[in-house]
Design goal:
Two copies of one chain form a homodimer.
Chain A lengths: L3 H27 L3 E6 L6 H14 L4 E7 L4 H7 L5 E5 L8 H8 L9 E5 L16 E7 L6 H4 L1 H5 L3 E5 L11 H11 L4 E4 L8 H17 L1
Parallel strand pairs in A: 1-4, 1-5, 2-3, 2-4, 5-6, 6-7
């Protein structure tokens, strides 16, 4: 059981985080920048998806940048930078999630003027990033078919706090004996309002639907 | 940056955890119980491995029990209980790892007398469980071929704090284009003393080597 003193400190930290996140969201909005926070288990294909997504958006003359979080290495930033996109790597030095302060510091290195989209690739972790608002407009949770259908039931807060669930690596559905209907039931059971899409970044399946969805959400945001 | 007050509280919590973990380890030793803490990303196949492992051990007249940690659901405990093994589910209610106190409470529900092995399936998370000693004799980190070869570089503490790395789901190596040699280099780069084994729990590959390894480690422990 968490002690009251620790609960109070944690509450205080979250309040400070949320205050800064609201400020960031307002800045993003003034710059007509649509910000997407991508969360998932380690190895669900966040980086591969981002590489394909940014390349496709670029062909539509839509500019995207990225902030990438990991405990260690700059592997992911290098992969995304190779698309030509402005990219900043955050190393959390053991911390299990990104927070608004880390994003705020990264923005000083990332010139986000004239960008349409900013993708934030969070630390691979289905627990800790759930509680931290980064000032994003939407949160996408990726769930790979290799992880099994029960992850939404086991990590309900992460799915419930997301706007869009992307089922990834669908080219492996058959060999993994993935039951899509069961997975969708489990997702909707903990997150009744979530939108669900399926993709295979490797095969390029489902990318166009995801791009249409992102563009439409960006337009809705700008009309608010 | 973590504030000094929070660092002090965290240090204090970890000290209390380690004190209790040492007591548990001593109790386990008196009962000739060998305890294995299994950590991994969500969906790397911990439960499937345990089900197959416990069944195989049972055919060798070796008795194993399990404590299973999840944020929510008792899915995993039900799967393991179906093998006939004594099993206790811990629901962490949002907490991202097990700790020694949770294990201590579970032991009151699990009669571990006459058991040879106790497997603790930790919360699926490659970050937070690394810092928490549960009184185990060895820690096994599972890494599925579907997650890519770079996870050891990105989550070095988890691999470095483990005694054995089990590469899982090897039946999917080819479709995932998994580079085993590169993965092994990455593992040994952050954990030079770790032992590496490969398994496919689904196909039954590598289970015998893993069982031989566990029995041999148990014997070494008893000679200490």
């Amino acid at each position: 059981m968490m002690k009251p003193r620790i609960l109070a400190i944690r509450k205080n930290m979250l309040e400070k985080n949320d205050f800064l996140a609201r400020k960031l969201r307002s800045d993003f909005s003034k710059n007509r920048l649509f910000v997407v926070n991508i969360v998932s288990s380690p190895g669900s294909g966040k980086t591969e998806l981002l590489v394909k997504l940014i390349k496709s958006l670029s062909r539509h003359k839509i500019k995207a940048g990225a902030i990438v979080g990991d405990l260690a290495t700059d592997n992911d930033a290098r992969r995304i930078k190779a698309t030509g996109a402005r990219t900043v790597q955050i190393n959390t030095d053991g911390n299990c999630h990104l927070d608004a302060e880390m994003i705020n510091r990264s923005l000083k290195k990332l010139n986000y003027k004239n960008l349409d989209f900013l993708f934030i690739e969070n630390v691979g972790n289905l627990v800790c990033p759930a509680g931290y608002d980064l000032g994003e407009n939407i949160r996408i949770v990726l769930m790979s078919v290799t992880e099994g259908e029960d992850k939404p039931s086991k990590y309900p807060v992460m799915f419930n706090s997301s706007d869009l669930c992307v089922i990834s690596k669908t080219d492996l559905s058959e060999v993994c004996n993935f039951k899509k209907k069961l997975a969708e039931e489990n997702i909707l059971n903990v997150a009744p309002d979530i939108k669900i899409l399926s993709i295979s970044a490797r095969k390029g399946h489902g990318l166009n639907q995801l791009i249409d969805c992102l563009i439409s959400l960006k337009k809705q945001q700008e009309l608010k």
